[in-house]
Amino acid sequence: MIKNLFTKHDHRIVPGITKEQAVQASSWYWRSRQFGIALPSPYSLTGGQFSSKLELRQSVSLYVMDEGPNVGVDIQFSAELTDEGAVVGVVGAVLLLPVTVAVGAVSYIEYDNDAMRQINDFWGYLYQFPKNPQPPGPAPAPSWAQSQGPQPFAGGPPPQAGPQMPPPPTAPSAPKVCPSCGASLDSDSKFCKNCGTRL
Q1: CA distances from 60 to 46, 49, 57 (A)
Q2: pLDDT at 185
């Protein structure tokens, strides 16, 4: 059974951008936040993300329309928990604040704060897009994932390998000498320079 945590809806007018640019920017932003993106029409977008570790599903839908000389963008963002995820929220709430916090409230606040941060970051990126039409950087880990270890959808580059140790130095080899006359030889000599013995 799925339990809806929240659904957020926002509509804003974005000046200086075309509908095509708004869809491109929206796609880049939500992909950078590890959402799978589909484009059901030229001016709409849907996306989803699922964290199996927390049993959390997030989804976004977006529509772009003309609003006079500007572009209107309508976004809906929602988060849902499966039964397993709801149990995690219950346990967290009971352990942290067993008397005053309702079931799952701690998780709800964390998810809600992260959703608002993502939406606000999205609007900031969209307003700046006409001046700098580049994909956004990787997303910071959400607050509810800080203590969960590596997350399936955490952004950022893969961890770097530790510094490489140089190979141990080789012991210097003894000087090469001719087996016939004992004269010293160069390391790449094929014949002895003293007696002409083939090496």
Answers
A1: 6, 9, 10
A2: 80
